[in-house]
TrEMBL record:
Protein name (record): Exocyst complex subunit
Similarity comment: family membership: Belongs to the SEC6 family.
GO biological process entries: exocyst localization; exocytosis
GO MF, one annotated term: SNARE binding
Organism, scientific name: Scheffersomyces stipitis (strain ATCC 58785 / CBS 6054 / NBRC 10063 / NRRL Y-11545)
Any Pfam family hit: Sec6
Key words, A-Z: Exocytosis, Transport
Amino acid sequence: MSDQAIARIAHLIKVEDDLTKIASFRQQFVKEKQSVDVKLSSATSLQIDSIMGNLSKLNSAAVKINAIKSNINKVNSIYDDSITNIKDYDTIRKMTSVNQFLTQVNSLCYDIRQFRDHLLRLDRRIEEELEQLQSSLTYTLPNLFSIHYELTQARNFSEYLEVYSRELSDDFKSIIYKIIDPIKRTIGNFQELLGEAIISLTEVVKDGNVQLVHRVVKIVEYESNEDLKFSLMQSLGLNQSRDVKTIDYASFRGRRRNYRKFFYDKLEENLSETFNACINHFSEDRMLVYENLDWLEDELTFITQRLAPLFPASWEVDTFIKNVYYNKLHKFTMEVINTDPPAEDLMKILAYDSHYSRRKSVIKQDQRSIIGEDLKNVVLEDYLKVITLKMEEWNVNLMKQETTAFTLRATPPDLYNYSQIIEDEDIQDNIITLEVDSDIYVLPDFKTPLTMLKEQADVAADSGYSKILVGVLEHWSHNYIKRIINYQQIIEEEFDKYMSVYNNERFLLKESKTERLFRRRKNGEQQFDIENMTQEELEQISKPGLIEYLTALGNTFEINTDRLQDKFLPNYLEKVHTSYHGRIKQAFEETLTPSTELNAQVIRTVVDIIVNDLYPALSSVFTKGWYDEGNTQTNDEPGMVQRCVETIGEYMEELRGYSSYEIYSVTFNILLDTFIQAYIRIGYENILHGSGKKIDPTAVKKYKSFSEGIGRDVTVLYGSLEGLFTRKDSAYLLNSLRAIEYLGDLGTCSDPLETIPDMWEHEILSSFYYCSVEYVRGICLCRKDMDKNDVHALVLKLTDIQKRYQASVDPPAMPTGTLNGFIFK
């Protein structure tokens, strides 16, 4: 019993209860066996029928083979009888040979006498055909076959005489050679005719003259077959065993004639002349060759689509022509590269190479690059090195020019018409969009860096090599950042020069006696006798126009950053494979943070210059003179805040005239924050360390009331500055001024330990989410009724409230940063 059967039985009988089913299992097995027997019997019958049919066919084949053997025997018998039974067979055979020889000699004599005249007639026919072909590309050479036939007969005859003369004396050989010598001229004439037809193939096909192609193909194909026969007979030794005395010389061939080689040689010669003509035409500027190879691409397309199908596939005419043109183009390109051309020329070569490689339908797979993959990679690297060195040199020169222009400031910045989209609010507080065209300041030649990028990147993109484009963009980005760093250093140096002449901190040192807070670090800068110097001498130290040039610098990088992100980045992403998108995005994004930091430094410097001009007025804040401004009977001079808003207004009116809206808006916001912090900080310092007096919350006289003075200043500030803001931006002014307004309540409220925490949680933090606790600590220290212990306990409480508040309340989308990081000594 087989293992399969045992396994099946084991599967069916697993437990003791299965033994009762043995009878049913037996019936099932019997049925299955009967079914298998029927199938086996049917298959056996089919196999037996097939075997019997094959045996019948084999018997029939055996009968036919025996019949063939019988017929072959009859043929052999008849042949033997025809040879052995004919009387004088050898004599008859010899007489036949003699008769053939006499006939051959008679024919030779006749053909020798007619040979020269025959060749002359043939030459005239060839010349007539050549003239016709040269005068018209539509001429089909109808006599080409008959001319070729007659020439073939003449060549057979001449080669026969040449072989026959090998057994003759030298004198007879000389005579034979003189007889056959004229055929050399005729062969040359025919080759000229055939060569003209070959070099005209492309043009005649364009004119629809395909019959000429067919005739050339038939002749070359015929000659190739005859050469093949000759080579086979030569290799078998049959040519040497021929009896030349009796052979039919009309079909005699004494050597290979190599018409196929002649065809390819002529074709290559013509193609080379065509390509060389193009090179010679642009000999003065060989790079123009690459810009004028449309004819070559059209030629390759024509050959692939129309010319090649007219030839036998085994000729591989299209492959041959493509090889010729590729070799010529490759050789020419290598000659150019070996002359060490400039980077621009290398880029043109690479650009054409990329263009050439995309012509997949008309070039071979192994000829996709005209300079080769290995050399192409070397050229790509060399080009990238050359162009990056050039960019580096250009960038160094540009930074020198920019440094000179910025530091000398000999002329005002350039004006640029800038279209801006501004968001504002109408009287119903709905957001509206305004498009504003204004003339803003920009640095001289501010488009130069982006122009340089466009020129180099466009050339790299046109080359079709993403590696080059990405390399150019990355290196340009690095140089762009170097320019930013250079400008940051220039700003520092120019601001130091400005402050060495126009620094107003001396007013704060003199009036507030807070030298330890306001003393600037000199960083080794040269000190000047400002009091005894003329205005011209001062301007030699710090040139006029610093704010104008700072604004022009900020405008320039704002515009260029927008153009880089909105125009340049999408443009170059479209030109490369997606695998390079990450590197290009990173190259552009790397310029964003430095550009933003530079503009922040520009704005910070402009704000510092403006605030520096405010120090003389701010030096009196919270002093006796500040309180006395409330006494209108004794106050004939403009007050402290009035002088501040006049100075701010003058600066911002000018700034609004030549800066972009973005620069103006951010500058004004930062100026507000800085001014308000300076107002509060200097006020604290005046009270705590200067000539100011601590705040008396119980003062009732109007011009002695701290809260009245605060309210007066806030009113003047808002009323004077509101007109310099858009309706939408004026909200920031209002929010910022609350930092001063709250001082009135914080400095005069009753029960400060209870009132101030409530104000802190429900008013101050809601207006200034990141407000520094120092802001409240300072005003509390300035109150007469609070000591340091009270203030310390209050600060701890405020700090705890702020933590809980920020944990439960999300920060606003645009928090007011006036009191962020506020500190005082």
